[in-house]
Write a structure and sequence with these properties.
Number of helices: 5
Bound molecules: zinc ion
Number of domains: 2
Number of strands: 8
Structural class: alpha/beta
Shape: elongated
Order of helices and strands: HEHEEEEHEHEEH
Helix content: 25-40%
Strand order of the largest sheet: 4-3-5
Strand content: 15-25%
CATH superfamily of the largest domain: TPP-binding domain
CATH class of the largest domain: Alpha Beta
Amino acid sequence: MVSLENACPSFTLITQNVDGLHPLAGSRKIIELHGSLWRMRCMRCGRITENRSLELPRLPHCDLCRSLLRPDVVWFGEAINPLHLKKSLEACQGGGVFLVIGTSGIVQPAASFASIAKEHGAFTIEINMVDSEIADRDLLLIGRASEVVPQLIHANH
Ligand SMILES: [Zn+2]
C-alpha cells in the first residue's frame, strides 16, 4: 500500500482494520474507518490519546476529566465517525482506479464504496481469496493481497 501511495498522488487508503498496521508500515493518507486499537477515547469528553501498552493493569482514566477511557474503535452497532465517512465518500468519488482488497463486502458502509466509485467513473478491481460477490467490480483477481497487489503495481510500470 505504501508503494501505491508513493506512485499515485491522489491515493487514499480506506481501511476497516483497527490493528494500526497500515500506519506502522508507512501509509500516510489513510482513513481508519473503524478506528484504531492503539488509541483511547474518553467516554465523557471525547479526548483521544495514543496508548501503545499491551496491558492495562488498571482501568485507564482521562487526564482531563477523569472519566473512563475506551478503545477508539467502532464497535458493532455504533456509528462511524461522520468526518471519516465524509472523507471516505470524497475519496470514492475521485474516479481513477478503485481497489477493494480482502473484504467480505458485507459490512456497511464500506460495502457500498465500490458501487459509489463505479458510479463516479472509477475502474473497480476486487482482490480477494474468494469471490465475495461484490456486484460493482469490473475485474476480480483471486489470490493473496500480499502477492496480487505487488504484481499489479509491477504490471503497471
Ligand atoms: Zn475526558
